[in-house]
Structure formats: structure tokens, C-alpha cells
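pasting for the record
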Amino acid sequence: MRVKDKRYPEEFKRQIVREVEETGNSTLVARRQTKVPGTVTRWARESRKENGLIPSYNYSNNINAKSLEEENEQLKKLLGKKDLKIAILKDLSKKTNPQ
């Protein structure tokens, strides 16, 4: 079990985690704040875990992970359809406007 880091106030850590969420880049935030990137990444990860945003490691029993997999499959199908439409439109464009 990890000992709580008492060197920085909780409000400071929350501010850093908010910046990470806004930018999506913990390394960038760490550089701006002159902190060790691993520490900032850990704070963000712990925050997500505390808020229930990181699923447990047992994916077979995790309902949230299952719904994410289903959504991922749906998005892959949509992407495939869009790619097909683009290919058809490009082919049609070449046939109607030969250069």
C-alpha cells in the first residue's frame, strides 16, 4: 500500500489533476509545474481510480468494460462504412472528372 504523499497540499494536487484532464497530457503539465512526470501521472491515475473512471483489472467481470467493448465494435463498423463511402465517392469523382 502506498503512503499518502504529504509534501503537497491536496488542493494543489487536485489543481494539477484538473490541468491533466484539460490538456490530456500529464508530461506537459509536469513540465509546466516543474514536477516529476511520474508523480503527476500517478496523481491523475489515483484520481481517476478514486472517481471510478478506471475499470478493475478483472475485465471478464466488469460490466463497464463489456459495454465499452460493444461500443468499440459499433464504432469500428461505422468507421468501416464511412471508409467505404469515401472510397466510392473518390472512385465516382475520378470517373466523372478525368484529368
